[in-house]
Design a protein that fits this description.
Two copies of one chain form a homodimer.
Chain A: H1 2-6, E1 11-16, H2 27-35, E2 38-42, H3 43-48, E3 58-62, H4 67-79, E4 83-88, H5 98-107, E5 114-117, H6 122-130, E6 131-132, E7 138-142, H7 150-160, E8 166-170, H8 179-189, E9 197-202, E10 210-215, E11 228-232, E12 238-240, E13 243-245, H9 250-254
Parallel strand pairs in A: 1-4, 1-5, 2-3, 2-4, 6-13, 7-8
Antiparallel strand pairs in A: 8-11, 9-10, 9-11, 12-13
Chain lengths: 256, 256
């Protein structure tokens, strides 16, 4: 019981599962799940990796809106000397749980070692299924104004639109939050051609994956929801044989 | 020889190796390397995965500045009916080869299937070793003006600095190109506190990994080179127990 009480041997791995396909999860993530004494996570993500878990480990699953409780429980168990894995979809460091874990640990100045195991994030996997839209400078922006003032989100959209960043939009829309994607499109359209390619991806690399290629003009005709990632191309982005591609500049420099 | 001539069975997988640690490469990437008849890549990346390659496969390695030749060779071999893997460090879709492959394929309207296997990019792995600096909206900007006019790069820096994006800087400096990072810092400093945390990472997850935490004021005292990624925090980013963390906004919304 000594180790459990002083927490010396406890540790917390914040584990990125990647986009969902099991063969896109890093072996380091799998090893962390297999060796954890306690696995904590949102139910849907745990279901994806049920086969990787050690039958002897304690599994704490929770519903989606309980991120704070989930992270706190993971830190507490680690502080009691357990080897804990907290699972996140995608990459823990991109719009996921890694930051919240450190924020909570700071409030108690927790000494337990915290390790972030990176994963293939939605922006990586969505880009891959679309082709290669992120080959030049890009900005990632969440349209969720739950924790960020909408004014700041809008100013960020206004900032990146005129200087030709590719834009990756996270959390474009939910049942209650439907205006933001309309406004985001307006801002982009004020600076870019209506023909600018737009890629819309849900469930990348999973069984229910949908990949749609459209344009700034027509993007709102598509079904967009909570789990959707929207990638707006820059002025050079093209579509060829169903792939969305942003050139890096080789053609201008060297000719192809 | 029919399949080789008509190219029906050829395919090209553009494979992301991840940051370098073998246990951060996705199983799908490993499988593509193991089953490829031809593996094409930059020598340094091939050395990282030598153990994964099928001894029977043809390996075409090249030096760094030959990207166009490398991609063209991979497409040609695939067009001749071979199963080809083109290896990239990190994620093929982020400042790597996926875009160039599609650009070249378009010039001949090549019909060969091209599949991008995403990987953990430098931005994901550098963020993980630093802590959680990318937890809020961020922009990725390459300072290389080889194929992008410096004026546009500078305008992008000017656009993102005042609206509090975390900024991930790729290609900050090379032997011949030393001024850009100086100018980038000046632009950030015009809008952010000199105490803003800055993370500087080289060789993330490899044996020679170096991780340094500094500030906008002092960042130029650090060694920065071709293989370095620089992450500049936003106004909320903090450092706690050697970790660089950007809060998402839970504290303001819910209290922690």
């Amino acid at each position: 019981m000594t180790t459990a009480q002083d927490g010396i041997n406890g540790s917390l791995a914040v584990v990125g599962l990647g986009p969902g396909a099991v063969d896109l999860m890093a072996p380091r993530a799998r090893a962390a799940l297999e060796t954890a004494e306690v696995v904590v996570g949102y139910r849907t993500y745990l279901d994806l990796v049920r086969d990787c878990l050690n039958p002897a480990s304690v599994v704490l699953s929770s519903s989606m809106m309980q991120e704070i409780d989930r992270c706190r429980a993971a830190l507490e168990m680690a502080g009691q000397g357990r080897r804990v894995a907290l699972v996140c979809g995608g990459d823990p460091g991109i719009y996921a749980m890694a930051g919240l874990v450190f924020e909570l640990a700071r409030t108690t100045d927790a000494a337990v070692p915290i390790d972030v195991i990176p994963g293939i994030a939605a922006l990586n996997s969505c880009a891959a299924v679309l082709g290669a839209p992120l080959m030049h400078d890009f900005a990632a922006i969440s349209l969720s104004d739950l924790m960020t003032p909408w004014d700041l989100i809008e100013r960020r959209l206004e900032a990146v639109a005129p200087v030709d960043f590719v834009v990756v939009i996270y959390n474009p829309k939910s049942k209650k939050r439907t205006d933001q994607i309309v406004r985001a499109r307006e801002i982009m359209l004020a600076h870019r051609s209506p023909d600018t390619p737009v890629g819309i991806v849900s469930g990348a690399t999973r069984a229910h994956e949908t990949v749609r290629l459209t344009t700034l003009a027509r993007m709102l005709d598509e079904d967009i929801g909570m789990q959707t990632t929207v990638i707006v191309g820059n002025s050079q982005t093209f579509v060829w044989r169903g792939k969305m591609v942003t050139p890096r500049g080789y053609d201008r420099k060297y000719g192809l």
